[in-house]
Amino acid sequence: MRTYLILVFSLLVSCTVLFSCQSLTDKQQSIQDSVDYLKLEHSYIEVRTMAHGLKVPWGMDYVNNRVLFTEIEGNVKELDLETGKVKTLLQLHDVFTRTTPGLLDIAIEKTEKKNPFVFINYTKKVDSAIVSSLVRYQYTGDTLINPKELLTVRGANGHNGSRLLIDKNNILYWATGDVANNKMAQDSTTLNGKVLRMTLDGSIPKDNPIPNSLVYAWGFRNIQGMAMDRLGNLFTAEHGDAIEDEINWVRPLHNYGWPLIEGVHDTEQEFAVARKTIMTEPMRAWTPVIAPAGLAYYNHSAIPEWQNALLLVTLKSQSLRVLTLNSDQHDVKQEHVFFTGRYGRLRAVLALPNGDVFLSTSNRDWNPQPGFPKEYDDRIIRLRIHKKKVGTYLQEDTVGANHMMRNNGVLLYQNYCASCHKPDGKGVDRTFPSLVNSSTVKNMKQFSMLLLRGTTLKKEINGVRYEQDMASFSFLKDEELVSILNYVSKQFGNKKVTTVEELKNLRKKN
Ligand code: HEC
């Protein structure tokens, strides 16, 4: 019965998607004229496409009525907010891009000068090694000149971070990924899995917490968003493994726990670690994961409902989340969710001095969600307060269908597995193995142990050695694990099933 309902539901969803796809194709010429409205408690927001036909606009920053942005394959472009024109400022030819690596973030010096410094970071190959390179340019208003490489750190096929942020005193922060290497984040002498703090020529500020070190804080996995509030508090958004995506309030010398502790301290093992070494818990964590990306701080009176809030965009849950801060700035008071599934994956968010908010989509990246990309993707979208009343509008999303998930293999699979192994189970070439006809899936005991333990030893799967490990899913309840195991086995394996009894026994032995 339930399966039947879900079928009807997904038919409905795909029809709506097809339908809107059709009508938007007709309207493609005028995509920039078609708008959505969003209703907040008191205000309306106009949602308008400002640029389209882009490829993964990963980072954005603002200067002089322009939004400068990166595209993952190596372009730096400029959107002129007066004319609406997009112009290419720079094309890099040495970018190494594949799934998540590429040209990532951009940040602009805070200055009255006409030629501010512009910082970008991207992955490239030096001999056969991947590195992450931080490069400074000068912006002439027309192009980017005088490149100077300030720093390179280790890069990898995944977990390169990364965000750049410049504070009002022109101190530059760079959030680096742990390059999928478990030794990095806890080693304060390496530059990976860190928030680094430097001057605009890449040197170590005198007031850094560790003398002669760029390291400001550590214990991070893969930061994808970074923002600073009006008082100078630094916040980051980062990807958890299979659980516990995080927002952190980042302070000098604090250790955020990865990989010893994941998210909030809530297991015996984690308590034990935290008793030995002081580790800081996140302000907010999400399980099931939402895949957080860009983060911005909003405090303009233009949208009163969003004052003193962190704006977080997400990839997997395809939403904008408004996290209002409490008055001491150290806690999330409320969370409001908007646009789920409407524009697809969202990568970057930027709050402008005039109170507008810009978002970028990421539907042409390596991991598009069902129904995307649309023809005009990727886009840069503007949110602006709209003073008049409107007839039809979008509303805040109601989230958390968790209660109906427990025994529903389809939903559980979608929530915990499909982001990597894909809804059709076919995975992503050389990154996530296919589950279709997998010998592990066919062997129920081995499959159950894998979900309980995660990857324990590296082996080749059909001739491919996967760089990333798979996390343990032992945090799921027995009923939930059994639902997933049986669903995957029926869909992609040999249709053998297991029971809660069998799983309980394996868990005991584990
Ligand atoms: C964050 C990405 C990610 C998620 C989420 C994920 N996996 Fe995996 N999975 C991997 C990777 C990477 C490997 C390969 C690991 C290795 O070989 O070291 C893998 C391996 C597997 C294998 C072994 C395949 C074989 O042929 O040996 C199975 C089965 C599997 N995953 C099932 C699942 C199920 C079921 C879920 C959901 C509960 C899940 N995975 C969630 C990344 C993921």
From TrEMBL:
Q: Where is the signal peptide?
A: 1-19
Is Signal one of the keywords UniProt gives this record?
yes
Q: Which SUPFAM superfamilies match?
A: Cytochrome c (SSF46626), Soluble quinoprotein glucose dehydrogenase (SSF50952)
Record PROSITE patterns: CYTC, PROKAR_LIPOPROTEIN
For this protein, the record's Pfam families field holds: Cytochrom_C, GSDH
In terms of superkingdom, the source organism counts as Bacteria
Cited InterPro entries: 6-blade_b-propeller_TolB-like (IPR011042), Cyt_c-like_dom (IPR009056), Cyt_c-like_dom_sf (IPR036909), Glc/Sorbosone_DH (IPR012938), Quinoprot_gluc/sorb_DH_b-prop (IPR011041)
The family database entries (Gene3D superfamilies) matched by this protein are listed as:
Cytochrome c-like domain (1.10.760.10), TolB, C-terminal domain (2.120.10.30)
Span of domain Cytochrome c: 404-492
The alphabetized UniProt keywords are:
Heme, Iron, Metal-binding, Signal
Which terms in the Gene Ontology molecular function aspect does this entry carry? electron transfer activity; heme binding; metal ion binding
Q: Which PANTHER family match?
A: HEDGEHOG-INTERACTING PROTEIN, HIPL1 PROTEIN
Protein name in UniProt: Glucose/arabinose dehydrogenase, beta-propeller fold
